Amino acid sequence: HRFPLSLQVAFSAPVGGSDRAVRSSGIQGINSLSFGNKSWIGTALACDSKAAAQRGHVCRAVQQSSKSKVSVVPLDLESAKEPPLNTYKPKGPYTATIVSVERAVGPNAPGETCHVVIDHGGNVPYWEGQSYGIIPPGENPKKPGNPQNVRLYSIASTRYGDSFDGKTASLCVRRAVYYDPETGKEDPLKNGVCSNFLCNSKPGDKIQMTGPSGKIMLLPESDPNATHIMIATGTGVAPYRGYLRRMFMEDVPNFRFGGLAWLFLGVANSDSLLYDEEFTSYLKQYPDNFRFDKALSREQKNKSGGKMYVQDKIEEYSDEIFKLLDGGAHIYFCGLKGMMPGIQDTLKKVAEQRGESWDQKLSQLKKNKQWHVEVY
């Protein structure tokens, strides 16, 4: 997903409303990964690409039921003590190459979200939870003669990328489309410049890139048995895909995850679910280490009969969540900034019901570095 650095059209869906789908399909245990019509050797599994084509959305890499993990290289990406930061800056961006752009939602998802794989040649390394900046082509309309502003996108892959060789990164991009409120028709002049540039890109296209940036969403790894509660709306799921691949898909010698990862994902409907096959595979293989709860605002009702949003799911499991936080769990929020007021209200209400002060609790969570928020 992306963070605007200046006032730009938001391109993710409202709280509980997002876009993208991937549903269960046939899976074959083989030694290469099929991603659309491309395949990379050395992965643990491929999906039934014919079935994926019939469904009209992307086939994701998942693991074999034997729990075998994917070998990753180069392992010296583990050796740095600090995350890389701002290796490339706006005045001297890196020229990367598009590997693939795939629609990541089903036909009934509102809007379009794309999974974009970028080849950086291993020259712009990053850690899970960081962002890249993308500079779309053309000149800045507010500063003629100058390049466009940088747009930040959360990276949706681990540091090894979808090809597990440390040379690519993936972005999860919601195409920002503007509809005229009077006519109801699309106005291409007001569409999001960068999201449409990325979603329209073709393999081999060159893109200008900055970063990586960000430290707030880095995955704390000092305790491999910690609990991580991840809350996302729409494309806000991007950093969590990286976390979960690192925990459950990749064979990383110095990080053997034995804790609990609990993902809450809010989207509009089933066709809007992102990386669903991938996440569902972890449930099957690591039932003691992974939980996955979905809030489908257009398909599910909350206990009051209204639309089901992520904060409703949080309320449903609030006792467990609060106990886990008291035990030192990390909690992450990523998505549109409009998601936070409803979530904060819910957490405050639950705290008061428990006889606690939410303000004090939040202050303590921040002090303990358990609270991680990146919204846009």
UniProtKB/TrEMBL annotation:
Query: From what organism does this protein derive?
Result: Aegilops tauschii subsp. strangulata (Goatgrass)
Name used for this protein in its record: Ferredoxin--NADP reductase, chloroplastic
One Pfam family from the record: NAD_binding_1
Q: Which GO terms describe its molecular function?
A: ferredoxin-NADP+ reductase activity
Keyword Disulfide bond in the entry? The reply is no
Q: Identify the domain of life.
A: Eukaryota
Per UniProt, subcellular location reads as: Plastid, Chloroplast
The entry marks the following residues as binding NADP(+), namely 154, 174, 235, 297-298, 307, 335-336, 374
EC numbers: 1.18.1.2
Asked if the keyword Transport belongs to this entry, the reply reads yes
In the record, the note on similarity to other proteins reads: Belongs to the ferredoxin--NADP reductase type 1 family.
Q: Which GO terms describe its biological process?
A: photosynthesis
* InterPro entries to which the protein is assigned, alphabetical: FAD-bd_FR_type (IPR017927), Flavoprot_Pyr_Nucl_cyt_Rdtase (IPR001709), FNR (IPR015701), FNR_nucleotide-bd (IPR039261), FNR_plant_Cyanobacteria (IPR035442), OxRdtase_FAD/NAD-bd (IPR001433), Riboflavin_synthase-like_b-brl (IPR017938)
For activity, the cofactor(s) needed are:
FAD
**Gene Ontology CC entries for this record:** chloroplast thylakoid membrane protein complex
What catalytic activity is recorded? 2 reduced [2Fe-2S]-[ferredoxin] + NADP(+) + H(+) = 2 oxidized [2Fe-2S]-[ferredoxin] + NADPH
Listed pathway(s): Energy metabolism; photosynthesis
Q: Taking the first listed entry, what is the main subcellular location of this protein, grouped into a coarse class? A: plastid
Which keywords label this protein? Chloroplast, Electron transport, FAD, Flavoprotein, NADP, Oxidoreductase, Photosynthesis, Plastid, Transit peptide, Transport
PROSITE patterns, alphabetized: FAD_FR
Report the residue ranges that make up the FAD-binding FR-type domain in this protein.
Answer: 91-219
